[in-house]
Design goal:
This protein is of the alpha+beta class. The two termini are 24 Å apart.
């Protein structure tokens, strides 16, 4: 995952109710707009955030979202980390498979969210909760610098 700039504060939002889900969507859109994300990029990021926040609430029993602005040279991005202390995911590979669901939905939540962002990291242990971290960039992900100069 890309590092936050040293002068960036992380905002933490609770995820414990449907009202919190609405607040998460609003705050993610607002922050993305402030960072220069275009409307389509904002919509993709809000869609991914909405799905992951709902998973945090429904499957993880609630938790929190941490929002961090990113900077890599002139590039601006946003990292969202969804954390819960719920039952965890027993089979990560199966959970990332399109069509797999434990909640009666379409089974596109995790895999769909992954397709909508530049970076995606899923960490879950049965009985210890789940952390999903995503990052998106206002103008595409910055390219890593080579060691030669």
């Amino acid at each position: 995952m890309t590092q936050a700039s040293p002068d960036t504060a992380t905002i933490s939002l609770p995820i414990g109710s449907d009202a919190d889900l609405a607040w998460v969507r609003q705050r993610v859109r607002q922050t993305a707009a402030e960072l220069g994300f275009g409307l389509v990029q904002q919509t993709k990021l809000v869609t991914a955030a909405s799905e992951l926040a709902r998973n945090t609430l429904v499957h993880g029993g609630g938790g929190r979202l941490e929002i961090t602005a990113l900077a890599a040279g002139p590039n601006r991005g946003l990292r969202l980390t969804f954390l819960d202390t719920g039952p965890g995911i027993r089979d990560l590979q199966q959970a990332m498979t399109d069509g797999f669901t434990t909640g009666g939905g379409l089974g596109l939540g995790l895999s769909g969210a992954k397709r909508l962002v530049n970076e995606f990291c899923l960490d879950s242990r049965p009985g210890a909760g789940t952390t999903v971290t995503i990052a998106a960039w206002a103008s595409g992900a910055p390219t890593p610098r080579s060691g030669a100069g």
